[in-house]
């Protein structure tokens, strides 16, 4: 059996993302589930590009601020306490707009872990 209690403020950031990303997956040694905390300053995207996953299901729980998500169907605005759900093969570009007054804090969860995002060219 394995259990972990983690303090998210003590997790180190991941420099491969355009925003601040703290991986709970790595800190806990998870093998099948992607879990991370994201902080997006005004003008920052959550991911490196407009992308989709072939198999991964994702949820983004907004803790603070408003997350904007561009999709081929239009733009969604997700408020604190709301969850944005993404099914496989559904392109997204989550971001905090340039003119936002506050940062956005998001808990992102996805599975399976090993399904890298593929660039979407709509």
Structure characteristics:
Jelly Rolls, 122 residues, 10 strands, 4% helix, mainly beta, single chain
Description:
With 122 residues, the chain is mainly beta. The protein has one domain (31-116): Jelly Rolls (Sandwich), CATH 2.60.120.10. It is 4% helix and 39% strand. The chain is built from one helix and ten strands. The longest helix is centred in the N-terminal third of the chain and has 5 residues, at 24-28. It is globular, with a radius of gyration of 14 Å. It starts with 19 loop residues before the first strand and ends with a strand.
Describe, in short, the structure shown:
By secondary structure, the chain is mainly beta. It has one helix and ten strands, in the order βαβββββββββ.
Number of domains: 1
**What can be said about the biggest beta sheet?**
5 strands, antiparallel
Helix content: under 10%
CATH architecture: Sandwich
CATH fold call: Jelly Rolls
Number of helices: 1
Shape: globular
Total E-strand runs: 10
CATH class: Mainly Beta
Question: Radius of gyration in whole Å, from Cα?
Answer: 14 Å
Q: Mean pLDDT across all residues, rounded?
A: 94
- Across the major sheet, the strand order is 1-2-9-4-7
Low-confidence stretches: none
CATH H level, superfamily name: Jelly Rolls
Strand content: 35-45%
What is the string of SSEs from the N terminus onward? EHEEEEEEEEE
SSE topology:
Blueprint lengths: L19 E4 H5 L5 E7 L10 E2 L4 E8 L2 E5 L2 E5 L4 E4 L6 E3 L8 E8 L6 E2 L3
Antiparallel strand pairs: 1-2, 2-9, 3-10, 4-7, 4-9, 5-6, 5-8
């Amino acid at each position: 059996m394995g259990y972990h209690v983690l303090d998210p403020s003590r997790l180190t950031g991941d420099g491969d993302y355009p925003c601040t990303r703290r991986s709970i997956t790595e800190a806990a040694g998870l093998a099948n589930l992607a879990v991370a905390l994201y902080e997006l300053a005004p003008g920052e995207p959550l991911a490196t590009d407009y992308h989709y996953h072939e198999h991964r299901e994702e949820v983004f729980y907004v803790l603070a601020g408003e997350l904007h998500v561009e999709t081929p169907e239009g733009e969604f605005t997700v408020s604190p306490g709301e969850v944005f759900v993404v099914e496989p093969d559904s392109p997204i570009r989550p971001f905090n707009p340039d003119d936002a007054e506050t940062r956005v804090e998001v808990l992102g969860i996805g599975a399976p872990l090993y399904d890298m995002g593929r660039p979407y060219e709509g």
